[in-house]
Amino acid sequence: MGFGCLTADVIVNYAYGEDFGGLRTKDFLHPVIAVGDTLLIYAQWAIYFRKVFYALDTFYDWLPDKILKVLSPQVLGMRKFQLTCAYSIYNLKYNRETVLSAPPTIFDTLLDPAANKGRPVPSDAVLTSEAVLMLLAGTDTTANTLTVATYAVLRNPQIRHSLLAELNEAMPTQKDVDIVTAEKLRGLPYLNACFREALRLSHGAPGRLPRVVPASGTTVCNIFIPPETVISHSNYV
After folding, report:
1. Hey, is 4 helix, strand or coil?
2. b/e string for 163-173 if b means 16 or more Cβ within 10 A?
3. Could you tell me which of 178, 168, 136, 138 has the C-alpha nearest to residue 36?
4. Cβ–Cβ under 8 Å, residues 204 and 141
5. Is the predicted pLDDT of residue 49 greater than 80, yes or no?
6. Which pTM was predicted?
7. How far apart are CA 122 and CA 110, in angstroms?
8. pLDDT confidence of residue 150
9. Which residue from 12, 41, 33, 23 is spatially nearest to 206, judged by alpha carbons?
10. Alpha-carbon distance 77 to 148, whole Å?
11. Distance between CA 135 and CA 77 in Å, rounded?
């Protein structure tokens, strides 16, 4: 959960220029992170039973918060999460004079007509969906990779010793740690080797992500899979 809060803090800052506060949450149990985990579980089942989940989603949309809190607090949490993302987009879009005094964010670029090269600026609904997807897709995926990297380094004393030696040489004091730049970190070969190995060994998405076979169908290992079939496979396939 700690790594999830760390990655969410970074993503929210880059996306909206806001303070998410994940690392300050007691025991790293931030409610939005918990909602994200629930949403990922629902999403994996929803593609297998699309009609059922579509009906449930439509039904839940009509329910007030008080009733939804009793029937499904997880769905209520997802509703509040989406509203939080929508509010962040609204703040960026309609309070731009205040927001633009801060460093530019990802959504500042999406809202800039010049950056869209003549194409219309995305609607509020599209931007809100992008905000939800960006936070969900970037939090667990990066946190999983960091978990794999930490586990691999800690279980191998030689790797841990070599990594610490390089870091201590590059940043011998706390002051050096506080002012270290990304450029300097990119110049540390052993640290970057650990990053690359973690990316090689880990998989971003937890669990199997389902996919729908296109209208033309597909052939895998000499077996034809009909169109519209829902399939999933291991990340290591």
Report:
1. helix
2. beebbeeebee
3. 136
4. yes
5. no
6. 0.70
7. 7
8. 93
9. 41
10. 29
11. 15
